[in-house]
Amino acid sequence: MQTEVSTQIDQEIEKYKTAHNGNKPLYMIMNTDEADALTESLKTEQGQSQEIIITSYKDIKIVRNNLMEKGDYVLSNELPETGS
C-alpha cells in the first residue's frame, strides 16, 4: 500500500542509490509527522498491532526530526554531528 510519503521516500532512495553505486543509505532523517504516517501505514500494510514500534523502512533506519520540513528527506550512511 503506497502512500504519498512512501512514494516520495522511494524516489529519494532511488536517487541516493543512483548517486552511490547502487548502495542504499543506512539512515533516513525526516519530519516527525511524516515518519509517524509512514510507520502507521507500514503497520496497517503488515497487519501489525498498534503496539509494535517500527524503526525502519526497507532496512533503512528512520530518524525523526521535528525541525525538518515536510517533504524534505536526508538520506545518509552517517548521522549528522550534533553540538553539545
Structure write-up:
The structure is a single chain. This protein is of the alpha+beta class and 84 residues long. It has helices at residues 4-19, 32-46, and strands at 27-31, 56-57, 60-65, 73-76. A hairpin with a 2-residue loop joins β2 and β3 (60-65). It is globular. The model has no long low-confidence stretch (mean pLDDT 91).
Labels describing this entry:
single chain, 84 residues, alpha+beta, 4-stranded mixed β-sheet, 4 strands, globular
Strand order of the largest sheet: 2-3-1-4
Q: What percent strand?
A: 15-25%
Uncertain runs with pLDDT below 50, 5 residues or more? none
Question: What is the gyration radius calculated from CA atoms?
Answer: 13 Å
Terminal-residue CA separation:
40 Å
The average pLDDT score comes to 91
Class inferred from helices and paired strands = alpha+beta
Task: Please report the total strand number as a whole number.
Answer: 4
Q: Biggest β-sheet, characterized?
A: 4 strands, mixed
Count of discrete alpha- or pi-helical segments spanning 4 or more residues: 2
Helix content: 25-40%
Q: What pattern of helices and strands is seen along the backbone?
A: HEHEEE
What general outline do the C-alpha atoms trace? globular
List the helices and strands and how they pair.
Blueprint (H helix, E strand, L loop, with lengths): L3 H16 L7 E5 H15 L9 E2 L2 E6 L7 E4 L8
Parallel strand pairs: 1-3
Antiparallel strand pairs: 1-4, 2-3
